[in-house]
Design goal:
The protein is of the alpha/beta class. The chain is built from 5 helices and 4 strands.
Length: 142
Amino acid sequence: MSIFFHKENVSFSTDEEFVVKWVKESVKSLGFAVGELSFIFCSDEYLKEINIKYLNHDYFTDVITFDFSKEKLLFGDIYISTDRVRENSNTYNTYFNEELFRVIIHGVLHLCGFNDKTEEEKNLIRSKENEFLSLINWKTRV
């Protein structure tokens, strides 16, 4: 029951202990438990290579989730481009950590069975992201 954090040539700080607690509580409220999750924070170029190699998508993205879950026990690798997170936080006028946490929980929600292919699915996953983000006091997280 562990969550790991890896950085591939990127530099930023966030409260990993808080993220672990928040993710575990969030998935528990959905009827899941954390088995083993790895968050790999990387650059746009690094994630684009992953996107090309494994998904045949030749474009930048903010998050890619590889799901190895077993029923209600979550196992997965979640790759996050901090370049894209930074750009999105500027575009949407939010704190870097707020956008980072949105992308973190987005990846985790994919492991819980949420998708974002259709407009209806996008609205549902965004609603869940907002629900879990609303539990955070951003004045203490930035």
